[in-house]
């Protein structure tokens, strides 16, 4: 790791394409040098310009009442570039005349909550909030998420901020940068907001169990934080509730992530928490991603609650509280999940697009037009509840699970994680589930100078036409993304990536033979598109 180095102020003022830093409703970039082929584009001065642009964006929407300047809180996960970027962001905000509240190591959901909390001891509510994180991406990456009390900023907001940042960056001078440094020394304050946030989580579990002080007493629950920001959950949430937490692992913040990627979708990460549960004979295991906006769980037998199974569990919990409500998910959820939600639980499954912000915004829209929805959740583990301000909060999802454990024991309706396992009984799960990535070569002559997006849409349209002429395949009657088709006892979805020149292909089927038949149907339809790399699909259908 000797090659790791930060890009200092001396390398500032290099030309930067700010729009390339946009990743949907987030900002993502390379913040640490040393990885071949990944030049640094999220420098201190770039971060300072982005923060100043956010300040300008916020000023257009919120006016100070005159009693104090506008306030913005800053938190970060465990990444090795976090402190450097926090200081740069602080300078950008302070230079705009803002009060800056640094929370240090924090979770993304806590940062949003700081815009809602009313507590002057921690300078809340703030007018805006910034979380420095790149979720589960490698150690050399970092990024920024932005919040107001209306929620997380959307794609259009991020585009606006980056356009402003580019102008600010181009006008930077040495003298101006020295002034922002002086401004930050006067405007920055520090506060421990995580104590407020975790106290609210503890109170939520106690309330669900009838105001019992230690409703988890006797439960053995292990936590795997993956060396991200989620280690607080053991000592500040589970232990005050009475849980035994021995065997919890990787709680110490370490931005090099030496044990496994902090990602509930990662197979190695899920193996790690499963092993911890089984070795410690625990009742439950809980795992978080780096910034704690995603989570998953494992029962006492080692059965995972992630992806479709986590959605099924959360749907069961929410539908007990709100019978008949609509559950909004992303596009790659299974047919078995739809049957479970609608036939067993009596709810409605609204399958929408990939992207946690898309899913959350769709749930909000449904409520606005009169269709009740209380849960928006992605297979990635991003889950948001109406009762929690539509915030995707991995810790709050796990609090809902803990509530079920505690209340079931109090009512005598069950004990241990079997209560949770029984709640997903009847969920049909495919024997084979794969995701293959078909890449578009943007330099291929077949694109004829057009965009990868236009080319990808042409692939999808051609596939749609081919499916219409195949009696063994049936296109989904309601679908919001790509081409979703049922047949051979399973289904496939081919869609265009939100950001990259890639067509992800999801296939689920009751057997490998049926999955291959679905794969062959796609292969036959797309083979004439020369710029499409189908090698992953070719290997799958050949059994390699």
Automatic annotation (TrEMBL):
<protein>
    <submittedName>
        <fullName>Phosphomannomutase protein</fullName>
        <ecNumber>5.4.2.2</ecNumber>
        <ecNumber>5.4.2.8</ecNumber>
    </submittedName>
</protein>
<keyword id="KW-0413">Isomerase</keyword>
């Amino acid at each position: 790791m000797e090659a790791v180095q930060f890009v200092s102020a001396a390398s500032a003022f290099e030309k930067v394409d700010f729009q390339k830093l946009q990743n949907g409703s987030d900002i993502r970039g390379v913040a640490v040098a040393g990885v071949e082929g990944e030049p640094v584009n999220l420098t201190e001065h770039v971060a300072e310009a982005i923060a100043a642009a956010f300040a300008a964006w916020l000023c257009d929407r919120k006016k100070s009442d005159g009693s104090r300047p506008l306030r913005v809180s800053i938190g970060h996960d465990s990444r090795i570039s976090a402190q450097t970027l926090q200081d740069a962001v602080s300078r950008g905000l302070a230079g705009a005349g803002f009060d800056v509240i640094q929370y240090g190591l924090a979770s993304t959901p806590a940062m949003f909550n700081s815009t809602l909390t009313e507590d002057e001891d921690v300078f809340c509510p703030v007018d805006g909030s910034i979380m420095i994180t790149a979720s589960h991406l490698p150690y050399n990456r970092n990024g920024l998420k932005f919040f107001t009390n209306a929620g997380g900023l959307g794609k259009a907001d991020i585009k606006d901020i980056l356009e402003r940042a580019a102008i600010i960056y181009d006008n930077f001078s040495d003298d101006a940068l020295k002034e922002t440094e002086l401004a930050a020394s006067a405007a920055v304050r520090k506060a421990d907001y995580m104590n407020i946030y975790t106290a609210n989580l503890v109170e939520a579990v106690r309330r669900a169990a009838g105001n019992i002080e230690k409703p988890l007493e006797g439960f053995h629950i292990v936590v795997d934080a993956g060396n991200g920001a989620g280690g607080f959950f053991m000592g500040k949430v589970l232990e005050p509730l009475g849980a035994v937490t021995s065997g919890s692992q990787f709680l110490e913040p370490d931005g090099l992530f030496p044990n496994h990627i902090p990602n509930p979708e990662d197979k190695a990460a899920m193996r790690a928490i499963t092993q911890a549960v089984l070795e410690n004979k625990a009742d439950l295991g809980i795992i978080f991603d780096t910034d704690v906006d995603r989570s998953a769980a494992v029962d006492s037998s080692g059965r995972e609650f992630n992806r479709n199974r986590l959605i099924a569990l959360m749907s069961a919990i929410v539908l007990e509280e709100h019978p008949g409500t609509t559950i909004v998910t992303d596009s790659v959820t299974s047919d078995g999940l739809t049957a479970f939600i609608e036939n067993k639980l009596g709810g409605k499954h609204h399958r929408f697009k990939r992207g946690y912000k898309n899913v959350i915004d769709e749930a909000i829209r449904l409520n606005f037009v009169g269709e009740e929805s209380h849960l928006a959740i992605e297979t990635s583990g991003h889950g948001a509840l109406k009762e929690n301000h539509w915030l995707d909060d991995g810790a709050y999802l796990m609090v809902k699970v803990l509530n079920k454990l505690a209340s079931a024991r109090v009512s005598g309706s069950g004990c241990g994680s079997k209560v949770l396992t029984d709640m997903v009984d009847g969920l049909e799960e495919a024997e084979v589930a794969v995701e293959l990535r078909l890449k578009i070569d943007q330099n291929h002559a077949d694109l004829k100078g057009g965009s990868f997006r236009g080319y990808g849409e042409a692939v999808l349209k051609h596939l749609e036409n081919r499916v219409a002429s195949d009696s063994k395949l049936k296109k989904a009657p309601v679908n919001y993304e790509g081409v979703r088709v049922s047949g051979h006892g399973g289904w496939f979805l081919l869609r265009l990536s939100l950001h990259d020149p890639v067509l992800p292909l999801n296939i689920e089927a009751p057997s490998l033979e049926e999955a291959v038949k679905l794969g062959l149907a796609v292969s036959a339809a797309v083979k004439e598109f020369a710029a499409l790399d189908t090698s992953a699909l070719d290997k799958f259908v050949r059994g390699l």
